[in-house]
Amino acid sequence: MSRKGEIYNNGVLAGILEKTDQDIYVFEYDDQYLSNSKSPAISLTLPKSKNPFKSKILFPFFFGLLSEGVNKQTQCRLLKVDESDHFSLLLKTASIDTIGSITVKEI
Question: Which of 12, 13, 84, 99 has a 20 to 30 A CA-CA distance from 37?
Answer without folding.
Answer: 99
